[in-house]
Amino acid sequence: MSVSSSRGDQWTFLTNHARVLLQIARDPDTRLRDIATRIGITERAVQLIVADLEAAGYLTRTRVGRRNRYTIDPTVALRHPAEADHPVGDLLGAFLHREESPASSGPESSRT
């Protein structure tokens, strides 16, 4: 069995930490159980990831009634030394910008 057939389809570019942060950026009022369902991990795993992100300063949690609201600090640097010169806002912007801009709008789409 070759390496590519045994694990080649198992890896992804983003970690679960990045996926959780992206879900929170998309909806700061989201519930952790909804994040877990969307990205396919347990609610407990999401709780631990949110605690990691909060401890590292990437996000803050504010109680609003019986729910939490999350605020991301886009200026905090990415953790790996190879990316430490980039703030997390760059990562979020790369993903969220594509989702928010319709493909048919803007000056580029009017050119043929």
UniProtKB/TrEMBL annotation:
Any matching Pfam family: MarR_2
Signal peptide: none
GO molecular function terms attached to this record: DNA-binding transcription factor activity
InterPro entries, alphabetized: HTH_MarR-typ, WH-like_DNA-bd_sf, WH_DNA-bd_sf
Annotated HTH marR-type domain residues: 16-65
Cross-referenced SUPFAM superfamilies: Winged helix' DNA-binding domain (SSF46785)
Coiled-coil annotated spans: none
UniProt-recorded name of the protein: HTH marR-type domain-containing protein
Organism: Streptomyces gancidicus BKS 13-15
